[in-house]
Amino acid sequence: LPEKPPPPPRVYDLYSWEVKAPQTRLVYIRDSHTVDQEMARFKPGPCGFDLEWKPCYRKGQKENPVALVQLANEETVLLIHITAIRLFPPSLLQVLWDPAYIKCGVGIQGDCKKLWNDYQVNTRNCVDLALLARTVDNARWKGKYSQPIGLARLCETYEELSLTKGKITRSNWEAVLSEAQVQYAANDCHSGLTIFKRLFPMTLTMNPLPLPSFYSFDLYKGLTYVPSIDDPHTLWRPYNPFYDAGPPPEPKPPKEKK
């Protein structure tokens, strides 16, 4: 009998912050006064966190600085256009350094290091969602503990929704944002919050309870540290002694000599 063809890949509905949280306000900010107003209203707790910057179109060009900082909590999605504001807003600095705000994202170590390199911004209580997924759902995720898992994959796995990517990621984030850029940026950071809210409760059912340092860190002066209520002092790396990476991958066959 001929083999059955594999089933077609599943098609998911697109992730929409407006569908997920219809009561949420979206605020696109291009001045420091509005940043201060919104930061005063922005409540502590988990928040999706992401950055955008203008891509380099020429090879070997120095990477452009962060142009947009995105934060999303239960009530508000904030798109803060750093390029338009010129100086990094002190009220935003305060929130990023305050451990009462749990910054959640994918590739968040790189983002935080970039913020330091570009603007000398320190960030505390940063949750790497890939490490959190590997901690709470180890049966599903095997392989190296520090291996990234994309946000789109996490959304498909835990929300059965698809994140739009494509050309817009390579667009100019320094110019006034188009409606498509606004929606893309809002969905990116809001989905980080959604994934955190899905995964974090799983930590409370685990025995022993996982340490926050298994999936979160502080970044101070460009270095990652174990999260602490005091000044950072112990260097951090992705590590979870309870994680099962599964069997090692099959060795690659040796290349044939020509």
Automatic annotation (TrEMBL):
InterPro entries the UniProt entry points to: 3'-5'_exonuclease_dom, 3-5_Exonuclease_domain, RNaseH-like_sf, RNaseH_sf
GO CC terms in record: cytoplasm; nucleus
Any single Pfam family the record assigns to this protein: DNA_pol_A_exo1
Domain of life: Eukaryota
GO biological process terms, semicolon-separated: nucleobase-containing compound metabolic process
GO molecular function, one term: nucleic acid binding
The name this protein goes by in its record: 3'-5' exonuclease domain-containing protein
